[in-house]
Amino acid sequence: MTALLIFLSIVLIGIIVVQVGKVSELAGRIRGEEDQQEDANRIHSSLALVFVVFFLAGCIASAVMYKNSILWYGPHQSASEHGSSLDYIFNVTLVVTGIVFFVTQILLFWFTYRFRAQKGRPSLYLPHDNRLEIIWTALPAVVMTFLVVGGLDAWNEVMADVGEDEPHMEIEATGMQFAWMLRYPGDDGLLGEKNYKLITANNPLGQNWEDVKNHDDIVSTAPGDILKLPVNEMVRVRITARDVLHNFDLPHFRVKMDAIPGLPTYFKFRPTITTEEYRRNLGATDNDGNPLYPEYWEPADPSEPDGPKRWEAFHFELACAELCGNGHYSMRRMIEIVERDEYDEWVAQQKPYYGSIIQGTDEDPFRMSEEQEERKAFMDAVEGALQTSGEEPKALALNNVNFATGSADLTNDSERELGYLIEVLSTYPELMIEVAGHTDNVGETASNLNLSSERAAAVVTYLVDKGVDAGRLRSVGYGDTDPLADNNTADGREQNRRTEFKILAQ
Q1: pLDDT per residue over 321-341, tens digit each?
Q2: In what order do the strands lie in the sheet with 265-269?
Q3: Could you tell me if residue 17 is inside a domain?
Q4: How many helices (H) and strands (E) does the chain have?
Q5: How far is the C-alpha of 505 from the C-alpha of 433, rounded, in Å?
Q6: Do 151 and 224 lie in a common domain?
Q7: Fewer CB atoms inside 10 Å of the end CB: C or N, the chain?
Q8: Domain end: 358, 382, 403, which one?
Q9: Please, are residues 287 and 300 in contact by the beta-carbon 8 Å criterion?
Q10: Which residue, 305, 327, 358, sits at the end of a domain?
Q11: 143: number of CA atoms within 13 Å, CB side?
């Protein structure tokens, strides 16, 4: 019953609304509102024509006013080889869509004027027109076909990878919140392997340090660093992300590619103009010395009117074109295009990440142990002495050959360095050496001489026991007669208490 009452109420309200409308229409006719409405239609449609004229004129004026700030016009021609094809496609598309835009806007507002409601003119209803259907279907289809084919050709050119034998250099750009980390190859021209599982505080890219190709790679992480690339050389950019989705964007080079975690992408381009040349184009003047682009002669920093002009401070930029978090704004980097010799000089000044951060630390798989470092230093000293053949024999200290206090008994910790000496004698079977013992001047001279002789003889005995031919060895004790330092100081006396060997023949 309730539902029926609601239904009847709705029907009744509808009848009332219709009747009120009829009464209002009748009253309007009595008052002459039809004539007033016709006048209003004429005024409004005329104003619409005025509006479209000013609107389109404003579009043209703004395009003319700001054309030099648009990448595809004025001084902002493409700075890369492939960019010209993209600019061409963009310009064609802009012309076609611009014509369509202007025509449709003019017709739209003209129709509001031409077919406004008028007294005595009945409304026309055209439900279908085959010719009109053909025109607005076929014409856009033909135009879109040409645009798509041209765009596909440009796309294939841009996205084609470098040829197998095509000379190029490869760099890597890794996006992270909130910075770009760029990796350059070193002298070998190759980027080393990396793995996200290897990422640490000291290894933000996860480089595999066991891959020696990583050892000369240059990694730039500082936002203030100005990166350099050589002009007229093919550059392949390997693009990755460490955390969220980023976008690698070099607008002046028409390079734009998503950086996706776990899915490396790439882009290749060839810079065709140096930064300095691009700046000169922005700051160009006519024959009378007037700037061709006055907007670029304004101060780069409005707070410093006497500072560098906009064209002088210009830099190509690397940006993230994907909103990647609150710090997205900080991912902007500066890139400078230079001649090859300047680029090589810049690269030579950069420190490989491995050598400056990793080498010698616990993360270095090639880090030598204390014993390995000691052995290397010993062998290097011997090699240096062997290169002085024909000169006065060079005495080489056995720094870690020790004896019990006041005796000629070798301590156990002496065996390691004596092992290095045995290795040298085995490597050079013709080598003959003299083992010399020295003391400080504490005590009697005769006693010191005797002790130094016994200690030198003890070293020789140890070597013979380990298989060294006794004919290649001789021992000499010098006592306190050949000090290296002042015996009046504790440090000096410690230096003078030593065991050495000299290469006599090789």
Answers
A1: 888 888 888 888 899 999 999
A2: 218-220, 179-184, 169-176, 235-241, 265-269
A3: no
A4: 11, 14
A5: 7
A6: no
A7: N
A8: 358
A9: no
A10: 358
A11: 14
Extract the residue ranges of the chain whose pLDDT is less than 70. Answer: 1-11, 13-14, 16-36, 123, 368-370, 388-394, 405, 506
Chain-centroid distance of CA 50 in Å reads 52
Quick one: tokens of 16?
């009332």
Q: Which residue has the tokens 């100005």?
A: 226
Specify the pLDDT at position 328.
85
Nearest residue to 443 via CA among 434, 435, 452: 452
User: Which H/E stretch holds residue 478?
Assistant: strand 473-479
CATH value at residue 395: 3.30.1330.60
Residue 406 gets the label, from left (phi > 0), alpha (psi -120 to 50) or beta, of left
CATH of the domain at 211: 2.60.40.420
Residue 291 is given by DSSP the state B
C-alpha 500/C-alpha 437 separation (Å) is: 7
Domain holding 495, by residue range, is 370-505
Q: Are residues 454 and 388 in the same domain?
A: yes
> Residue 164 domain-assigned?
no
pTM for the full model? 0.64
As for how many domains the chain has, the answer is 3
**Same domain assignment for residues 144 and 198:** no
Question: How high is the pLDDT of residue 9?
Answer: 64
Among 420, 431, 437, which Cα is nearest to 377's?
420
Residue 391 to residue 431: CA distance in whole angstroms: 16
Query: For residue 316, what are the CA distances in angstroms to 247, 271, 319, 440?
Result: 16, 11, 10, 69
Q: Is residue 9 one of the residues assigned to a domain?
A: no
Q: Which amino acid is at 55?
A: F
Structure tokens of 115? 């077919």
3-class secondary structure, 61: helix
Q: Quick one: tokens of 49?
A: 């024509």
CA 194 vs. chain centroid, Å, equals 16
Domain membership of residue 493 (yes or no) is: yes
